[in-house]
Amino acid sequence: MAKVLIIIIIFSTFGNFLSSLAANAHGLEVEETDMAFVQNLNPSERIAQIKTKTEIKSSQNKVLPFSLDFKTAKQLALANESWRFPYVAKTRIYETQGYNGPYSHQGVNALDLYANEGVIVAAKSGTVSLVEFGGIHDGWCNSNTDCYNKGGIWRGNNIIINHSDGSSSYYLHLKPGSLKAGISNGQYIEQGTSLAIQGSTGYTCNISCTEPYSHLHFQVNKNGISIPTPFDDCNYLGNQCDSSGIPFPDNFYSSTNYPPGYSVNIQDKNISLYAGNFSALLFGINRGDSLYTGGKDENITSKWTWLPSGEIRGLNDWCLSSGDGSNIVVSDCNGKDEQKWMHTNNKTIINKQNGLCWDSERGDTYRSRVYLFNCHGGRNQQWRYGNEGYPIEKLNENQ
Predict the structure, then answer these.
(1) pTM for this structure?
(2) Domain membership of residue 343 as a residue range
């Protein structure tokens, strides 16, 4: 009789799984576990989730001795921390689908976000509760059924972070092999910590669903329910959100989510011709794009952070570098002298590697190429950082 009951329970559990699998193709819905993945888990995963929940409840019933360490105090202090876009600061993001979206978010508070080579970061401080990378999670599937047949990988490579306010944030479809070193279960991380790179693993589709679509599925759940998350970035100039701080679909946004400890000394400023009307900026948003002159408040690509190391960082946290020929381009930061810049007393900006100066090819005109040329100190080579004329006090000492 006992064996018959066990078989009935197993088939009942599996049946519930199949029915919930058909309920939603792409959203973390309310179910009987706080992880809210039940409708897309296979039976063994479901049992593991329920077991984990049971163990958590059991531990909560125990009487624990009073203690409050620094980490716990810090987590409590961050309970009211604002949400920030889950991309590294200065990334230009496009929202392809919003809450209750028409494609796969019906009835779900989830966002589909896209950025060029987007580096995904923690939207809020918390503790990593799940990391699933590699193996079946590296694959792509074009339907719920296809995902189930391949092992139930609709979410692809993914990370979940639990927060001190009782919510959990979900980062899905991440790029294979992009998991940042040190990100693991149980690790406490601060807002802005790099997690991985946006990808197209799991159930991701272009319009015809014939190939993968790179994006981030971002969602926050609390008590098993997907909840809206107002973003602090909506206060940034140029980011247009609704009155609650929720971004609109089919719109571009700029992230202000700086790495931990980085925002304290951050200086987002223009680098402009000293006596002119135009500043150095990018007209594209791709790695390898060159500097030109444009309006000071034209877009996020006109803002730069000049660090004491000599690096000048901008969009996607890329560094300005001496490129091929005489161009000045953005590329991944490497710490080399080709990416170190010195601001001299006569207002010129010199590359540490080759000793050449920034020069505006056509002077104080719109869309003039900013390139490297022999230093002569003329008006085309005089630049100020913000309103100060110099980037950071004593920037060039010992450099």
Answers:
(1) 0.57
(2) 267-385
